[in-house]
Design brief:
9-stranded mixed β-sheet; alpha/beta; single chain; 4-stranded antiparallel β-sheet
C-alpha cells in the first residue's frame, strides 16, 4: 500500500519541492539559530547563495558534537514554549543529545512513520505489538503513533518479560511485531521453550524491525523461526532526525525508501567530506527540510550506505538507501542502545579502587547481546564482601550512564593487556 502521493512524484517534482523547502529552512536557521549562523559565516555562505540543490554542498556539516556543545536547546529554531515534546538520547560525554518537537513536527513524524509502516505491509487490520522501550528513546512512541494513524490496534507492551509478551501475542492475536532483530529472535526462541511454535501457534505475519542492523543472515534466521511467510523489513531513523521514519523497506526488500519530501540524503567520503557520485558507498548525510524545532542541516550520521535511484517495483519513485554496512566510528549498538567506549571509560576512571586499564567484550547468546567489562583493581583486595560491593558500584554507575546492565569482571592488578600504540579495548564477538 502506497500511503502518500509524495511517494510517487517524478524526480523533477521531488527536487523542486526539496529546493523550496531547503531554501526556507536555511533562511530560518540563519536568522534564528546563532550556532548555524556562525558556521555559515565561517564557511562564507549566505542563505541567498542556495539557488539549486547542488548548492547544498556549500553548507557546513552538523555533527552530534554540535548538539552536545549547544546542550540542551542551543540548536533549536523555536522558543521553548512552542515545544510539545522533548526526547533525548545518551552521548559520549554523559550529557544526552536533546531533540524537541512542535505540534507540526509531531504530525510530520507520525506521517513519515505511517509511510514506513505501510511500506512494511501494515494495515488497519493489524494488531501491532511494540517491544521497544517507552521513554526518552524515540523508537517506541514514533512507531506507536505512526501505526495508530494507519488504524492498527496498538499493544504497547514495551520491553522485557518475554513470556508475558508471548502471552499477549497469543491472546490478542498480534499480527505485527515491532522490535529489534535480536529481540524478535529471542521472543521466538522463548515461545518454543514454552511449547509454542511461532509459525503455527502465533499469528505474527509482519516484523517491522529497527534500532539494530538487520543483516540478511539475521533475516534468514527470522524466517527459520517465524516462518517463510513473515514479511521482515528494516527501517531507519535516529533521534536527531525525528526518530524512526527517515526510510524503510518495501515488500521487494531492495533498499529503504527515503521520505524525500522531508529529508535530503547525500553520500560523502567520510575522510574528506566530498560529496560522492550516485551509487558510490560512503557516509550518509541527512538534511531535514521540514522541521520546525530542530531543523538539522547536513547532519553527519556516521552510517555507511549508498543511494539507489533506479525505479522500484513497488511503484514508489523515492530514492532508496542500501541496508547499512556499519558506522564510521567505534560506537557499539547493544540491545538497541548506542554505547560509546568513551562513556564506559569516563565511568571507570571516576572510580578510585580500579586502575585505568579495561577491556570491553560484547557477545551474543540466545540472540541477546551481552556486555562484559573487565577492569583491573588498583590494589589487591582480599575481602570478598568488598569485591562484591565494588562490582555493584561499577554496575550501578554504568547502568545510570548507558541505560543497560553489564557484567563486571574484576581482575588482579597488571593482568590486562598493555598497548604501545593505540589501545584495542573492544572485542565484539557477536556472530550474526
Amino acid at each position: 500500500m502506497i500511503w502518500a502521493k509524495e511517494e510517487t512524484l517524478s524526480r523533477a517534482e521531488i527536487e523542486a519541492l526539496q529546493l523550496a523547502r531547503l531554501q526556507e529552512t536555511v533562511c530560518r536557521v540563519y536568522e534564528k539559530v546563532q550556532p548555524y549562523r556562525e558556521k555559515m559565516d565561517a564557511a562564507g555562505v549566505k542563505p541567498d547563495d542556495i539557488r539549486t540543490l547542488s548548492d547544498l554542498k556549500r553548507l557546513p556539516f552538523v555533527t552530534k558534537q554540535d548538539m552536545r556543545d549547544n546542550y540542551p536547546f542551543g540548536l533549536f529554531a523555536v522558543p521553548k514554549d512552542e515545544l510539545v515534546r522533548i526526547h533525548a538520547s545518551s552521548g559520549t560525554t554523559g550529557k544526552p543529545t536533546v531533540v524537541g518537537y512542535t505540534k507540526r513536527d509531531l504530525d510530520v513524524w507520525t506521517e513519515t512513520v505511517s509511510r514506513i509502516a505501510a511500506l512494511g505491509g501494515a494495515t488497519r487490520q493489524d494488531v501491532a505489538q511494540i517491544c521497544f522501550g517507552y521513554g526518552m528513546f524515540t523508537g517506541a512512541l514514533g512507531l506507536h503513533y505512526g501505526l495508530e494513524k494507519i488504524g492498527a490496534a496498538m499493544v504497547p507492551s514495551s520491553t522485557g518479560n518475554t513470556e508475558k509478551q508471548i502471552m499477549y501475542m497469543k491472546d490478542f492475536g498480534t499480527t505485527l511485531l515491532v522490535a529489534t532483530p535480536s529481540y524478535a529472535l529471542r521472543i521466538a526462541e522463548v515461545a518454543m521453550q514454552m511449547g509454542i511454535d511461532p509459525k503455527t501457534g502465533l499469528n505474527v505475519k509482519i516484523g517491522l524491525l529497527g534500532s539494530e542492523l538487520l543483516t540478511e543472515a539475521m533475516r534468514t534466521e527470522m524466517h527459520k523461526l517465524w516462518g517463510d511467510e513473515m514479511l521482515v523489513t528494516s527501517n531507519y531513523g535516529m533521534s536527531e532526525l525525528n526518530g524512526p521514519g527517515v526510510s524503510g523497506e518495501c515488500e521487494y526488500l531492495c533498499g529503504m525508501h527515503i521520505n524525500e519530501d522531508f529529508f535530503i540524503p547525500e553520500i560523502i567520503d567520510p575522510k574528506t567530506g566530498e560529496v560522492l557520485s550516485p551509487g558510490e558507498k560512503g557516509e550518509l548525510v541527512i538534511t531535514c527540510i521540514y522541521k520546525e524545532a530542530l531543523p538539522l542541516i547536513r547532519y553527519r550520521t556516521k552510517d555507511i550506505t549508498r543511494l539507489i535511484y533506479e525505479p522500484c517495483k513497488c511503484g514508489r519513485t523515492t530514492v532508496r538507501m542500501e541496508n547499512l554496512d556499519g558506522r564510521t566510528d567505534d560506537m557499539l549498538k547493544i540491545r538497541g542502545v548506542n554505547v560509546f567506549p568513551s562513556q564506559i571509560e569516563e565511568v571507570l576512571l571516576g572510580i578510585d579502587q580500579i586502575g585505568p586499564h579495561y577491556e570491553i567484550i560484547v557477545t551474543r547468546k540466545d540472540h541477546t547481546d551481552r556486555l562484559e567489562i573487565r577492569v583491573e583493581l588498583a590494589d589487591p583486595v582480599d575481602e570478598f564482601r568488598k569485591l562484591q560491593e565494588l562490582e555493584q558500584k561499577i554496575r550501578h554507575k554504568l547502568r545510570m550512564v548507558l541505560g543497560l546492565d553489564a557484567k563486571i569482571r574484576l581482575e588482579s592488578p597488571n593482568t590486562l593487556q598493555r598497548f604501545e600504540g593505540k589501545a584495542q579495548r573492544i572485542k565484539d564477538l557477536r556472530k550474526i
